[in-house]
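Narrative progress, year one. The postdoctoral researcher (J.K.) led the effort to move from monomer predictions toward full complexes, under supervision of the PI. The following entry was the first complex the group processed end to end, covering 611 residues in total.
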Amino acid sequence: MTEHSSELSTPGAGAAPVAARPAGSEVTLPERFENPGLAPHRDRVADRDPAAARGAARRIALLFGVSMLGSIGFVVAYVAAPSDGTVTGVRNSTLYLGIALFLAMFGIGAAAVQWARTLMSDREIVEARHPQRTSDADRAAAIEVLRQGAADSAIGRRGVLKGALLSALALAPLTVAVPLVGEVGGTWNVNAFRHTLWKKGTRLTLDPSGRPIKAEDVVEGSIVHVIPDKLRDSEHWIEEKAKAVVLMTRIDPAVLKEAPDRAGWSYEGIVAYSKICTHVGCPVALYEAQTHHLLCPCHQSTFDIADGAKVVFGPANRALPQLPITVDDEGYLVAQSDFTEPIGPSYWERLK
Amino acid sequence: MKAIADRRHHRLAPVLLLLLALLVTGAVYAALSPSATSAEAPSESDIEAGAELFRTNCATCHGTEAEGRDSIPSLIGVGAAAVDFQVSTGRMPMQATNPQALAKPPQFDDEQIAQLAAYVASLAPGPAIPSESQVDPALGDPSNGMSLFRTNCAMCHGAVGKGGALTDGKFAPSLDQTTPTQIYEAMITGPSNMPVFNDANLTPEEKRDVIAFLAEQKQGSPGGTDLGGVGPVSEGLWVWVVGMGLLIGCAVWIGAKAS
């Protein structure tokens, strides 16, 4: 291998070996490389031996036969083992149909490939490449036609027409671009991320049943998945739910750490935080009752629910926004207000 | 006898011996392992027997009065449900200090578990073992159960209850082998790091719906093999190794010259 490369290397490709060689030893490169031509053709077994060729043909026919069996088997399975609606029935029907379909299709493909490999001619063929450049006369003629057209339209003199043409061409793509871009995000109202359905006095209710929650029903070590009351009455309620979902639990007041500016935000140790991860917005909901850690399943960001939902691990950069809560006259938990900061991942205008 | 002695160096002899040993062990275990007994309302003698079992098997860690210490929980007020769950799944008595107690074959028979539960329940009121009808999957609504499971359970236990990883070696176990009673007890007691789902959060009917949904999963996946049902890791491994391996194999076969 190394001997070959030193003999045949081109100046560019041979740079490294030359550098590695001791100074003084000359390498003579030929002016022009000879076309090495094709390697000698090697006949296959089936080319030399008619019996082997017949054997190869039989094997190819067998592969086509496998395909035929598969096709017939597919029809048989379709009739004999229909999907009856039970889990087992669907699974078996899918399995039989799938195996039969695989045999039917793969049999044809494998037979065709095997046919081409063993029986069809594999003689190497050389086809020379032709120049692709148009002749100089044709090029000059084409340019002359263009020049005549430009002169005929008098685009250089008629300024109004020139401006109108360019304006029309510039405006036309808007018919495609405006709907395309406009419908990408549904809405371009950035403030939509700033507000959720939570308002002063909105009851906290269970997801998905919508039952309101009494404060005494939230026990230590539990986790309650919360949606705002009357969520389904709102237009686009799924989008609203995606922003408003909240996780709630009760923490032993001896363990609970609260920032002074959030002193009134919890109720007798019950804290409520946004369920939307501040990293890229996955629902962060794997709660470990003993460690008070809330884990995001997407990128393992971990938040300490006993300490303001601060990030203790992972790529998230901010604590989960806290929902200030209290109870109403009937003892049900209600929100004091909306979240005081935008929920979910960061975006450019977030702090404006 | 001589025929056997002649063949003892046969290369299949160890395999045969191993199979025999496994068979004998299995048979002995089946013969000696306790059979199920019907549960009855706890009597005074049950509580006394439970107290005795507790002193010999549990008091070393949980304390003679079940008061707990340091990192070991007090069992006063945990109720019969917690005892039944922990002991019937084999998590207690704990074998070793792991990130969390691991399920293993139960160390007590049903009667002993009932006695232990009766004793712990007698210390202070707590969640009771659910009745047969409370956990009967046939009475639940699997469709509502799916929606509840998706909201409350799936983030840890996976979409079809096959379990998943948590932090520091902890994990949410697969619910394949968990009985309906144990599922119910886990929800009301919150074993280890699992949160509690009390009856205000998930009503008894809703708990039964969840159990019905999980019972449906025992029929398996309608799409064939579920590759463990644990999500993108096993599915991705399958596609990258088996799927792409087959494609590369086909490409090599098509490109190779026939002999």
